[in-house]
Structure formats: structure tokens, C-alpha cells
Amino acid sequence: MKYMLLIYGSEDCWTEDERRECMIESMAISKELESQGKLIASAPLHSVQTATSVRVRSDRQEITDGPFAETTEQLGGYYIIDVDNLDEAIAISARLPPAKKGTVEIRPIFPLPE
After folding, report:
1. So what's the pLDDT on residue 85?
2. ∠72-75-81 over CA atoms, to 5°?
3. Which ranges of the chain have pLDDT less than 70?
4. Which residues form the YCII-related domain (predicted)?
5. Where are the domains of the chain?
6. Handedness of CA 78, 81, 85, 90 (dihedral sign)
7. Which residues contact 51 (CB under 8 A, 6 or more apart)?
8. Which residues 6+ apart lie within 8 Å of 45 measured at CB?
9. Is 97:25 a contact under the CB 8 Å cutoff?
10. pLDDT confidence of residue 108
């Protein structure tokens, strides 16, 4: 089953050294999952300050800078994995360094019809 792991956290909770170590550890986990055929994709995201939000209301586009919600935790990256079950997705999520300072949300991916 395919799952998306959404990485949330406060952008200011990491020192530069911690961020670098987090990236190194996360890349090692990604390589391990890839070697097992369980990783589809993963990537960190640029700061929320670089975001653009689009809404369409009454057939009009509303474009704003930044995220659509005011929160302390922002979406900072993602993994798309293909594993046997939710328990395995939880085990992988718990290993990810951002889980120690933020949240890893696990969402099943709907399969699209051919």
C-alpha cells in the first residue's frame, strides 16, 4: 500500500548543525528504503516564506504569498512509500529525525484508475 508521510515542524526549531545532521540521517533512511524497493519519492521543501497559495472562488483565482493557514508547524517535506501496511509506515515514520521535533502525518494514497 502506498502512503504519503507529511513532515511538519516549526521552521525555527533546528540549528544549522541539527538541520545538516537531520538531512544526512534522512538521506540515509531514504537510500535504505530505496534499496528495499519501498521508497517512491522524498524531498525537503523550501521555507514557507517561498510558498504561493492559489484558491479559486466564483471562477476567480486568488493568489497569495505564503501558506493558506497560520500555524506554528509548517509542511517541511514528504516521503511517498510503498509498504505492506500501516504498522510498517508508522515504524518508518518514527525513525525519521523530524518526528523528534515535529510531526509525521501518515496518509494512505488513493490508487487512481488506469
Report:
1. 97
2. 145
3. 67-71
4. 1-112
5. 2-108
6. negative
7. 65, 66, 67
8. 75, 76, 77, 78
9. yes
10. 97
* CA distance between the termini of the chain: 16
Residue of 48, 49, 29 lying closest to 39 (CA atoms): 29
Q: Could you identify the residue written with the cell 528504503?
A: 33
Cell of residue 85, nine digits: 501496511
> Which single residue is written with the C-alpha cell 505564503?
66
Which pLDDT does position 5 carry in this prediction? 97
Stated pTM of the model: 0.86
CATH code, residues 2-108: 3.30.70.1060
pLDDT tens digits for 15-29? 999 989 999 999 999
